[in-house]
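User: Quick sanity check before I run a bigger batch. Here is a single chain. Can you write out its predicted 3D structure?
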Amino acid sequence: MSARRSPDLRPALAVPWVGELLVRCAFDPPGSVVQCGVSGGADSTALAVLAVAAGCDVTIVHVDHGLRPDSHVDAAAVTALAERLDVPVRCVQVDVAPGANLEARARHARHAALGPDALLGHTA
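Assistant: Done. Predicted structure follows.
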């Protein structure tokens, strides 16, 4: 699997769609400290871009469940995103408890790592 590549997003903060979406968002006031949970997918990436555009003091947090041998590729892509947005990033590795329903167990581990106040740009 090749690494995800995304364009330089700093100029994207000035494009019309960011402003159009931003007026439909309800971020805390500029300067507010927020944590954005970012998987590297389109939804959470858009959330991070919009939070930065809203003037929030953003820290991107990526949770690596270690469920795929190449999960480090996602972490690298999220780190690159944070660099392009000029915001801090924290990559957290979690252990997923054994048992049935892997998706639910991974979600539980992710939410525990992110905390209750993290902004999420995808379904819970």
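The two ends are 26 Å apart (CA to CA).

User: Great, the batch can go ahead then.
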